[in-house]
Write a structure and sequence with these properties.
The protein is α/β, with parallel strands linked by helices and 303 residues long. It has helices spanning 3-9, 18-32, 69-81, 91-100, 106-109, 114-121, 183-192, 196-213, 238-249, 278-292, and strands at 54-57, 61-62, 87-89, 125-138, 142-155, 160-174, 227-235, 255-262, 265-275, 297-301. Strand 8 and strand 9 (265-275) form a beta hairpin.
Length: 303
């Protein structure tokens, strides 16, 4: 058969369909993505009856190369941690004490004994955190956001580690374009997976997973006067705090202000509540985010 006839009969020879290219790319990237790391080194306390009653969340260290991620993860972790039946030392109190002692740097903290930290902060246990991974991957049709966090709880009375765990949260996005017209939409959706909102989602997932695994002491019972409150703002200006209070009071929310001084000066913190159950507080938190685009932090109301 003449060569010209063969070419005429096979006009698409040598071309690779777009869908096949996309499948190959997605499979390659998926193969490179590591699976989530869950509970790789969980350690549980040997003496549940003597489990710590009060805890302080120390500044988190960072091995990811991102200067801001550790502070954001620590705040999110504390927000979830505050719902557990511990007496937690507020972050601003921890930071104020450590700054006065020049111990704010996580590398310096790592060399301080747990016993000394317990005496300085007035707590039974301290929590060390390390962000060992923060990564954004974008390859057009595929993207991923990952946050890896490890946690250690040290008993300040015995200088022993009573619990540790680690988890990597990964959020993937990608699609298979069926035609060239689908490429912009798939690429856009992949790119949106790398926004700050998705970053917060990954941080929240890592913190929530680890906090949910922390063994809670049966001896630490919830006090009758305890309830849940949401912090919705903190201002050096009392007038700004009052404006925020009035804004939500006008919509029927129970809002109050607590003022206090630390080494940075006087701060006016705006709270909402109290709510007698965690479920009720979480529902209000969800409503604040959805209807008012307002972030909040849940904690126990110590009365």
């Amino acid at each position: 058969m003449p060569a010209s006839r063969r070419i005429h009969e096979c006009p698409h020879r040598g071309r690779v369909p777009l869908a096949l290219l996309a499948v190959g790319l997605l499979l390659l990237l998926a193969a490179c993505a590591r699976p989530p790391s869950r509970a790789a080194n969980a350690v549980y306390p040997p003496r549940k009856g003597a489990y710590p009653r009060s805890v302080a969340v120390l500044p988190f260290s960072d091995q990811s190369g991102n200067a801001d991620i550790a502070a954001a993860v620590r705040v999110a972790f504390y927000s979830h941690m505050s719902t557990l039946p511990f007496h937690d030392v507020e972050l601003h109190e921890v930071d104020s004490t450590l700054r006065r002692r020049r111990l704010s740097n996580p590398d310096v903290l790592a060399r301080v004994s747990a016993g000394r930290l317990g005496r300085l902060l007035g707590c039974d246990a301290v929590i060390f955190g390390n962000v060992y991974e923060f990564q954004r991957v974008f390859a057009g049709l595929y993207s991923s956001m990952s946050v890896g966090l490890s946690i250690q709880i040290w008993d300040t009375r015995t200088a022993e580690m009573v619990w540790s765990d680690r988890y990597t949260a990964r959020i993937h996005e990608g699609g298979l374009p069926l035609s060239f017209l689908d490429l912009p939409m798939v690429t856009l959706r992949s790119g949106l997976n790398l926004t700050e909102t998705v970053k917060q989602h990954a941080i929240d997932e890592a913190c929530r997973y680890l906090v949910n695994r922390i063994p809670t002491p049966g001896a630490v019972a919830r006090r009758a006067g305890d309830a849940y409150i949401l912090q919705i703002g903190a201002f050096a200006s009392e007038a700004r705090a009052i404006r925020l209070q009035h804004r939500f009071q006008n919509d029927g929310f129970p809002v109050f202000i607590r003022s206090g001084r630390d080494d940075r000066g006087v701060w006016h913190r705006v709270f909402m509540g109290p709510y007698q159950s965690l479920e009720a507080a979480v529902e209000v938190q969800r409503r604040l985010q959805q209807e008012y685009q307002t972030d909040s932090m849940i904690s126990r109301n110590r009365t």
